[in-house]
From TrEMBL:
GO terms for biological process: carbohydrate biosynthetic process. It is an enzyme of class 2 (transferase). The gene is pseI. SMART domains: SAF (SM00858). The lineage of its organism: Bacteria, Bacillati, Actinomycetota, Actinomycetes, Micrococcales. Keywords: Transferase. Its EC number is 2.5.1.97. It comes from the Bacteria. One of its GO terms (molecular function) is N-acylneuraminate-9-phosphate synthase activity. The keyword Transferase applies. This is Pseudaminic acid synthase. It holds the Pfam family NeuB.
Length: 349
């Protein structure tokens, strides 16, 4: 699969993981706070910052009916109506331009998840470098086709989706001629239980859809993303906040600044550790090879003396006969005088 470019950043197995910092509703209704989050993301070393582009009226309707209310037992938003939640969490459209401008000035790729065609129009006007399809919108194939038709990379989150639904979404994107597709493994629970991440599905998804695979993660901490990188994920998306305490509607499962910086740092190390599928001594082990054990003469000996465990031992460094050959040379006689500290070789016995 060829690399994918978003902004100035290359995405693929040959590049460090592409870290997307999701702002979501953690701006807490403040543009200044949203801009501070963008600055924090840039300081962390992450490559991208992402928004969600919708209005309450474009994603739901104002209703108190049970269909429009979250279950009372929901850990974060129990009993709230969709309208109320999205009214709090949405990013006003007039904020998008200053957020995009700041992100671009700081070298970040800035893009968003559109939730309807008017959102796509807004993002196109801002020259978005990519589109992200949220998990709940994976069944909105017309929206996927519209976003993909713009010819930009399209990232599809797969929380809750069956393999046939993922296949349909990828096929919808490809039907527009767009092959720049990234599929994100995802558990759409907030926060998500690590035991439900099923990250072993990442290589399965890569083979099934012939696409780059990443992870949209809602578990606490950075353990799941690092495991995902080890399994081949080339993209990691995490929600971020300036502080979990009072940090916004999604803050309880979001990364704070130091944690995001740790994710950037440790995910790159995890990627570097993958290396190549080879087994053997590495370049950095050359010095260590010099100090493997081998057979050495450890006492001054005269010609004719027998080899014993007192005058020949397995010690460091390397250079002498292999330790396992002691039984072969034991009892033989030295052919010449040998000084202590000489590597044992066949010509000496």
């Amino acid at each position: 699969m060829p690399d994918i470019t978003i902004g100035k950043h290359q995405i693929g197995p040959g590049h460090r993981p592409f870290i997307i910092a999701e702002v979501s509703g953690n701006h807490d209704g403040s543009l200044d706070k949203a801009l501070d989050i963008v600055r924090m993301v840039a300081d962390s070393g992450a490559q991208a910052v992402k928004l969600q582009t919708y209005k309450p009226e474009t994603i739901t309707i104002e209703s108190d009916a049970p269909d429009f209310r979250l279950s009372d037992g929901h850990e974060l938003w129990g009993g709230r109506t969709l309208w109320d939640l999205y009214q709090e969490a949405h990013t006003p459209w007039e904020w998008h331009e200053p957020i995009f401008e700041l992100a671009n000035s700081l070298g970040l790729a800035c893009f968003s998840s559109p939730f309807d065609p008017t959102a796509v129009d807004l993002l196109e006007s801002l020259d978005t470098p990519a589109y992200k399809i949220a998990s709940s919108e994976i069944v909105d194939l017309p929206l996927i086709r519209l976003a993909a038709s713009k010819g930009k990379p399209i990232i599809i989150s797969t929380g809750m989706a069956s393999i046939s639904e993922i296949d349909a979404a990828v096929a919808a994107a490809r039907s527009t001629g767009n092959e720049r597709i990234i599929v994100l493994s995802c558990t759409a629970d907030y926060p998500a239980n690590p035991e439900e991440s099923n990250l072993r599905g990442i290589p399965v998804m890569r083979d099934a859809f012939d696409a780059h695979i990443g992870l949209s993660d809602h578990t606490p901490g950075i353990g799941a993303p690092l495991a995902a990188v080890a399994l081949g994920a080339v993209v990691v998306e995490k929600h971020v906040t300036l502080a979990r305490e009072g940090g916004g509607v999604d803050s309880s499962f979001s990364l704070e600044p130091a944690e995001l910086a740790a994710l950037v740092r440790e995910s790159e190390i995890a990627w570097q550790c993958l290396g190549q599928p080879t087994i053997g001594a590495k370049e950095g082990e050359r010095e260590g090879l010099r100090f493997r054990r081998s057979l050495y003469v450890v006492q001054d000996v005269r010609a004719g003396e027998r080899v014993t465990g007192h005058n020949v031992r397995s010690i460091r460094p390397a250079g002498g006969l292999a330790p396992d050959l002691f039984e072969v040379v034991e009892g033989r006689t030295f052919a010449t005088d040998v000084k202590r500290g000489t590597a044992l070789s066949w010509d000496l016995v």
